[in-house]
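Hey, can you fold this?
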Amino acid sequence: MGERMRPEVVVLLGGRIRAVRRERGLSVVGLAGLSGVSRRMLTQIELGQANPSVATVDRIAAALGTTFPALAGVLGEGPPDGVEVWSAPNGSWARLLQAVETGEVFVEMWKWHLVAGDRYRASPIGGAPASMAHVLRGRLRVRTGEGERYVGAGGSARIESTADHTFEAGSDAADFLWVVTMPRTTA
């Protein structure tokens, strides 16, 4: 499984990126220069025709002076169940429940459900401190460049955010919360 988003979230984010870009008086070329995302990719994202990674949307959001959670609509009084950002055909999903911004960082809380044998690979987050996963049900396998470990229900794991890491469900489904602290970047 890759780290691709649900189609309806892609359309939502594309529309919000376009609106914020226009509000800031930026052209697509200008935003491409600030974000490091190609003009072609930005156009496809704005039209809901490309399915970018969360890391790509984070770069675009930073260039616009905002954040992924703000674009997704989960800051402040967001939807009570969050926004289902990712899902897989066999029933796995991830919801961004809430986010809190401070001057230097913002904190995202995600709820995950991975079905047996399913996995999700997360990209590194430059400059981010470690994240935390807390298993609510089942058994979660966390693989990093340093190795792997298993976390059972009621257990928690600290995960370095500056390297690739993969979450995998074991022989049963795994439900877990993932708390990520992101550095506040400016374009």
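Oh, and this one too while you're at it.
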Amino acid sequence: MKQFYQSLYFTKMMFTLIIGLVVLFILAFVFPFLLGIAQLLFLIFCLMWLSDLLMLYRNKKGIFCRREVPERLSNGDENPISIYLENHFSFTVQLQIIDEIPFQFQKRDLLFTTNLKPAETQIVEYLLRPTKRGTYSFGAVNVFVKSPLGLIKRRFQFSQDKEVAVYPSFLQMRAYELMAISNRLTDLGVKKIRKIGQSQEFEQIRQYVQGDDVRTINWKATARRNDLMVNAFQEEKSQNIYSLIDKGRVMQMPFEGLSLLDYAINATLVLSNIAIYKQDKAGLITFSEKVGQTLMAEKRAGQMTKILDTLYNQKTRYQETDYEALYIHCKTYLRQRSLLLLYTNFETLTSMRRQLPYFRKIAKDHLLIIIFFENTELRALLEKPAKTTEEIYHKTIAEKYFYEKHQIVRELAQYGIQALLTAPQNLTISTVNKYLELKSRGMI
């Protein structure tokens, strides 16, 4: 009986009819001829209510529902969730579906309405975009069924409690992987760069194309074919590519729901996958006030799984980053010259200069690329016209910090250290572009 009461809900139409009957009975005290009409309507109402109750409750399993959720969700991406519905009633029903999604999404208005004919099936689909890694718990799926009479609703509750892990953006990684396999990286914004570097391993003789190095022209083959022919060399492979991720407090700053750390993690996952596809070795180092986890560069099967599992557990440590510890660690463990992509952030030129000695020492042994973030809020403020004295003051301060970001890039370049300043949402594309550019120039 308790289960019956918990599943029974009254509709707005029922309350409207009850109010109308009450008003009619009140008017019957003033106009006695209305009493008979009110009693007849009340009888009809009771019969309709009982009929509605019988229609909804005589079939114990009138509705079947199943939520389909991926085994893992991709952080920062739109993940598809679907709800499968079957109508076992002998009449068309109106459905309201409320899914108890994890509290991290802070959504309390996830309501879907639909109609189902007898024996009909339907799939309701929606998207969820998580912004934090970790474990998310789904609750029950509540389906409220209303008959054609529309006086009451019956709730079917399908307890599908399920915990789903949110991993770094593997959907983005797969998208870039498919583009790389089909040589369509330009569709995602990655620049197509002609390879101007070369190794000493000969591959083939081919026709000259504008942009080829004239020093590779094969004059004998040119004379035989009466057309410019060049020697093509195999691309150098199996270089070490390390992603160095700063987990200090500067990486906690949020942009569009994701922290800078999560942007760096997503970019690292994509870049590592592209590097392995290009026959390079991908590795990983995390650090903050001390060096965290180190995954030595490899290209064997299973390396991406290790990288994904390692990145899943990374959290901001909210402390000042120790770059001296990073330099000592690199000096100790990275014996071969490697490409180091260091994800961090600097808001002022002074903060960068404090770490410059360590960057210069690392750059002596490796090709170091420092990747830090453009403050998109400052850019939006600069593009907005200033009308009051206060707005002019704010805009002047914003211009100072915006200028310092670009000054950091120029100062690092003076010491032969490459830097990449990018908006958080463009980090992955910019990083992959930089890697492909360096690889095409034979710098790694």
